[in-house]
Design goal:
The protein is of the alpha+beta class. The chain is built from 5 helices and 7 strands, in the order βααβββαβαβαβ. The structure holds coenzyme A.
Length: 169
């Protein structure tokens, strides 16, 4: 399994990877609707590639099984999305993708890597906590993260939190 920068030719597979990944929520009643939710379109993927913030996991057969995309906001790298095909989940692909994003954050001189995620979903906040992320208390949220959480809430995403990984430490 190879984790590498996303190429233009990979874009065609990424919406399907994200749709497949979202099947993880189908067995989680409160969030089952996410299994049929919207996914990033090709233009959004292209913008992340152009900014140098998109990586894919490619299996030994050359199939794209996961992707992560992130964007610099000043000295903070923000993880916008990480998705692994449903049938490839639980085999370490997500952890490898996340490690690549952390490595890129460090290479790019980021002070921290941030993300927003579900507090109670086992493969969301608990996974990031084990990895070394910390939850950011509501009172300490930056304007940017407060805005992301408010927008997610308005779109029906309840039970979210913001997390940070201190890249320098
Ligand atoms: C989150 C996601 C990218 C992780 O990818 P993955 O390849 O399954 O991850 P890994 O196999 O590397 O496992 C990562 C951790 O999640 C845990 N995990 C994965 N699937 C799990 C499940 N169904 N239930 C409980 N824990 C799970 C693993 O135990 C592992 O923890 P550890 O490394 O501390 O032991 C993947 O589950 C996914 O695409 N989910 C749907 C989309 C999503 O939730 N994206 C994250 C948005 S913030």
């Amino acid at each position: 399994m190879l984790v590498r920068a996303t190429l233009e030719r990979d874009i065609q597979w990424l919406p399907d990877v994200e749709r497949s990944a979202a099947q993880a929520f189908a067995g989680w009643p409160a969030l089952a609707w996410l299994a049929q939710g919207d996914v990033m379109d090709c233009a959004q993927h292209r913008a992340f590639i152009d900014a140098g913030g998109s990586w894919v996991a490619e299996d030994s057969a050359g199939r794209i099984v996961g992707f992560a995309c992130a964007r610099f906001e000043g000295r903070v790298l923000h993880l916008h999305e990480i998705s692994v095909r449903h049938e490839a989940q639980g085999q370490g692909v997500g952890r490898r993708l996340l490690q690549r994003v952390v490595d890129e954050a460090r290479l790019g001189g980021a002070s921290e890597l941030t993300l927003t995620t579900f507090v109670d979903v086992p493969w969301n906040a608990p996974f990031y906590l084990r990895y070394g992320f910390e939850m950011i208390e509501k009172g300490l949220l930056s304007e940017r993260l407060r805005g992301i959480l408010a927008s997610e809430h308005a779109h029906g995403l309840i039970g979210r939190c913001a997390m940070r990984y201190r890249v320098g430490s």
